[in-house]
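General statements about sequence and structure are easier to judge against a single worked case. In the encoding step, the backbone of a single protein was reduced to a row of integers, each denoting a local shape. The record that follows shows the chain in one-letter code together with its fold in token form.
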Amino acid sequence: MGMGFFSGGPARAMNPQAKAARARPTQQLYVPSTNIPDDVQLVNADTNPTIRIPVGHSSLNWTLIKPRIRASYGWLEIERNTVRYTMSRPSRITREADQGFEYNRTEIAGLTMEYNAAEFRARGLRHFFGYSPQDHWDAADSPDSSVNSISKTDSLHTSLILRALQSFDGVVADFKLKQQTTTPPPVVAQPTEVPLPKPASPPSPPALVVMAPSGVGENQTIEVNESSLTIRGAAMDNSGLPTIAINGAPAALRPKGENAAEFWSDPITLKAGDNPFDIVATSPAKATSHFQFVAHFTPKAAPANPRALGKEEIISLLQGGVPVEHVAQLVKDRGIKFTPAPADLNDIRVAGGSEELIQTIQQAATSGK
């Protein structure tokens, strides 16, 4: 997002009269993960992932009779629940003073690509963002038309902003895969003497990232309230497409290139308590990576039967002259809502309860009815 964004793009296209005469631009394709610019950062990846992007920003208030267009340059920070813009300096082209903001994700609507910019609406404003490296900000404000080539190059990465807003976890996974595959190997000092032949080093294991269930970490226990669980993630290996097994069962794969694939499981039915999972990625060279975690499932408590009988109700029925056989049948049909202690059973006997009724009450307590 360079000079063209403020001087000729949305700044002019956002004029209502000009917009009516201009067709809506075609949405751009997402930028592949391998093309993430080096100055786009993933911060706090393991605690609160934050995608930090240098941008040019323009906003428009459509609630006014004469719309006000504001523009500036700064840093867009996208988190799982929050979107924040910190202005570094205003644009020299627009007159209105721009300002930063912080929105909850629930306030954002209308995500799209328009006028070569990522657009959304929030609190009565339309916001437009374009990727713009910090060292291009001065050139972007220049009246010199020769900088248009810079703007076109920057705009190739603008759709990454829209993807980060629409598919946050997917972009975080792209960053992690990029970091794992681009980490330089350690520098090894070579001895001055000719070393003896060494056996070939084992192949490197595949890179393995788990994205669902949300927030899961390796060797962690997560709490789950639903009886069904689906596992999703991505894997990459330099020797080719890896295969994935979850607790020994093959996972479904969708190739994303010659060396990477997404994977997912069928819905897995959980048992009450701990459910351990072992996800294994195997490369064509037979090297393996493991990702292990435990899902602790707590079933939702069954609602109590409102018609179940309490101890005092049973005694009241007996003392009121209801036949003991009929009271026993009521216990079988409705169940009880107390845990009978020996003293409780003695009280029921004193009220006229038979041994058959006592056995029926004990069976209802054992069955949980």
Summary: Residues 315 and 351 are 6 Å apart (CA to CA). The radius of gyration is 32 Å. DSSP finds eleven helices and 19 strands in the chain. The chain has three domains: 3-174, 207-297, 311-367.
